[in-house]
Design a protein that fits this description.
The protein is mainly β. It contains no helices and six strands. Strands 1, 2, 3, 4, 5 and 6 form a six-stranded antiparallel sheet that branches. Strand 3 and strand 4 form a beta hairpin. The protein starts with about 60 loop residues before the first strand and ends with a strand. About 15% of the residues are buried.
Length: about 140
């Protein structure tokens, strides 16, 4: 995603995905206006769909959530501790951002298999960056 419609200038890369059948969900701040898709190996473009949703339409982290790959969850509760579990080898990063998609704080980066606790300082959007199945339990 880039935010310079009048000139070709690439800002920070918000997401990078491997070709696969999975769905990915990432946070895109409102100032970003363009999407750049690069071909994969061999010069082929993957099939893809792209759409925007408001943060109010995201799945709420209540008691637990699970997934495989990138995702974003809404959390509206107060300060708490969550348990993160990865049953396979792989890496996951959890970040907490404001509901507007702005401020972001990294909560944890770890390699699986892993089971441990993570402090969640309060409400916001929980961005999960992972290539392996994960479970989050409040």
């Amino acid at each position: 995603m880039i935010d310079t419609p009048e000139r070709l200038e690439q800002g920070s890369m918000l997401a990078a995905f491997s070709i696969g059948s999975g769905r990915a969900r990432v946070i895109v701040p409102r100032e970003y206006t363009h999407l750049r898709v690069r071909p994969g190996r061999g010069g082929r473009f993957p099939r893809w769909k792209f759409g925007f949703r408001g943060s109010g339409s995201l799945a709420e982290l209540g008691n637990a959530a699970e997934g495989k790959g990138e995702d974003v969850l809404r959390y509206t509760g107060g300060r708490t501790t969550v348990r993160l579990e990865l049953k396979e080898a792989g890496r996951v990063t959890l970040r907490l951002r404001s509901f507007s998609g702005g401020y972001g704080a990294e909560l944890i980066t770890c390699d699986g298999p892993f089971r441990g606790t993570v402090d969640l300082p309060g409400p916001g959007l929980i961005e999960v960056d992972s290539r392996v199945p994960w479970t989050i339990t409040v």
